[in-house]
Amino acid sequence: MAEKKVGGAGLRGQVAGKTALSTVGKSGSGLTYRGYDVKDLAENCEFEEVAYLIFYGELPTKAQLADYKGVLKGMRGLPQALKEVLERIPADAHPMDVMRTGCSMLGNLEGEESFDEQQDRANRLLAAFPSIICYWYRFSHDGVRIETETDDDSIGGHFLHMLRDEKPNDLHEQVMNVSLILYAEHEFNASTFTARVCASTLSDLFSCITGAIGSLRGPLHGGANEAAMELIERFSSPDEAEKELLGMLERKEKIMGFGHAVYTESDPRNAIIKQWSEKLAADVGDDVLYPVSVRCEEVMWREKKLFCNADFFHASAYHFMGIPTKLFTPIFVMSRVTGWAAHVFEQRADNRIIRPSAEYVGPELRKVEPIAERG
Ligand SMILES: CC(=O)SCCNC(=O)CCNC(=O)[C@H](O)C(C)(C)COP(=O)(O)OP(=O)(O)OC[C@H]1O[C@@H](n2cnc3c(N)ncnc32)[C@H](O)[C@@H]1OP(=O)(O)O
Ligand SMILES: O=C([O-])CC(=O)C(=O)O
């Protein structure tokens, strides 16, 4: 892939502010959270440790982690008024719209009265998002009102438990853990920038996160994991995938789950989730979806020097764990709320309203014609 054009459309390459939270592509294709390589974190930490790191700046001690997990566990319950709202959202609603409404409604019930409450409210959202999506999903699809206050040790385990009515096995809990770590933070991506713009007006945390969810929903951003699933499940063999992809490229169609606004040669999260997808494929005895995904990766690199981003192998990994496709992007929210909230705190700590300028390309100054004379 050619060098990224700096400047021009999409503010590409422009420095739009400072952050101490992460670096993206700083040394080629690296990704760090507060100075730690994401690969190191994914190999050695639980997601809650990484959330703590992102919020508080340092990895927790054993005691701090136990405390933090206790705090989050205690925040899994949903207020009755929120449950009632979730029960009224139809089964065919988009789950990202459910997340957006859930976040906004919680803001009405437990709003942030002062910025002193920001960490508490961020923890509440981190703990409540899995409950929000699963409560709606199970009510609208299975007609049951689930208990959201589970005793699961991890956020990923809590999510899978509510979704399936049984505790997940170790492999699935571990993959959720890695996935949530990989998605937690990514500098000034579109949804985070949305949150920061909102924060720069001194708005409340729930508004910032609600806006960010809206930005993440699109297929050019978080929605790509769903779109990638819709693509790969169309193919019954690697050869068919290759033939169809070549046709799509010929027709200049976008292939979701490939390319990146910052990385130029690879997304460091891909190799990690790809390994787990391969393990899960072996676990479920898959001999189609994983080989199809690998062939897509080969074809895209060979033909266009486009590489898989974080979303592509997440699609097969989630699918092998039996997670419905439409819940893929909400999982991204369950994780990224850490990065979003931490960016809101950073923006608030050194704020100036974000207000760039536009290059005007409209008509010259003109006079209003009386309405009777317009024709
Ligand atoms: C977790 C995440 O949010 S990661 C991103 C998830 N999004 C996707 O997977 C959606 C598919 N990918 C894309 O649309 C893009 O690659 C983006 C949005 C991620 C990045 O956009 P940009 O920075 O504008 O892309 P970039 O400048 O690298 O594009 C270069 C060329 O490659 C093409 N290209 C980029 N990605 C793709 C793709 N996935 N499929 C086909 N062509 C592509 C572009 O159309 C462009 O061609 P052109 O010069 O003829 O117009
Ligand atoms: O950084 C980006 O533009 C998109 C991305 O990969 C992310 O938000 O994780």
From TrEMBL:
Record-level Gene Ontology MF annotations: 2-methylcitrate synthase activity; citrate synthase activity
Protein's pathway: Carbohydrate metabolism; tricarboxylic acid cycle; isocitrate from oxaloacetate: step 1/2; Organic acid metabolism; propanoate degradation
SUPFAM superfamilies reported in the protein's UniProt record: Citrate synthase
Keywords: Transferase, Tricarboxylic acid cycle
Active site: 260, 311
UniProt KW Transferase keyword: yes
CDD domains in the cross-refs: Ec2MCS_like
InterPro entries, alphabetized: 2-MeCitrate/Citrate_synth_II, Citrate_synth-like_lrg_a-sub, Citrate_synth-like_sm_a-sub, Citrate_synthase, Citrate_synthase_AS, Citrate_synthase_bac-typ, Citrate_synthase_sf
Gene Ontology annotations of biological process type: carbohydrate metabolic process; propionate metabolic process, methylcitrate cycle; tricarboxylic acid cycle
Homology family: Belongs to the citrate synthase family.
Listed name of the protein: Citrate synthase
Organism: Microbulbifer marinus
